[in-house]
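Sample intake sheet
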Amino acid sequence: MLRFALIVLLLANAGYGAWSHGLLRPWGLAPQEQTEPQRMRQQIRPETLQILKSNPNPGAAAGPPDPQPPVSAQPAGECLQAGVFDERQAAALRAATAALPQDSWVLEPTPLQTGRWMVYMGRFDDLETLDKKRTELRTRKVDFDRAGGTLEPGLSLGRFSSENAAKRELANLVSQGVRTARVVQERPESPGFTLRLPAVNEALRPQLETLRNAMAGKTLRACG
């Protein structure tokens, strides 16, 4: 039995060797050839084949573009101002600043002298009447002072920086029995102007020499 199995194994090996070497091809028994002509016949539309370039860093293509470096901002410059100038001086400054770049300067309204209002009694006909009013006010415990200037002879019952404040004080005095007082403007407001240069840079600074003669002795200083 063992001899029979050995003979069968030898015949099988011999048959496989003959088949693999093509010795049985005349009988239609042979392995499929793997040479290049057969491979070419097995290709489907080889003309459509495209070779793509590999990307060594796939994530780089999907990422956002590199940001552009920020543009450095130009220095804003220093804010300088001078004043206060009266109307005549302001007119001279407007003429001098005409040579400066547009929007590099401004004349801001700034009262040269604020107005002042008074609760006033007078003008009295004589000193006797003035003395009687003083005695009356002392009796009512109302403070007073000389009116001064063109309002003499008269009495000031208070000086205020606004007309409304003076009117409030007058109403308070009326409630205390004072009847002949009234509100007058002791001093009118004098208009004035402040010269402001909001952004003085190195290019503008030399041009400020043109303002020297029009600044009436005033100097430029840092804005407050």
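Comment: The helical segments are 2-20, 36-42, 58-62, 87-96, 127-139, 163-174. DSSP finds six helices and eight strands in the chain.
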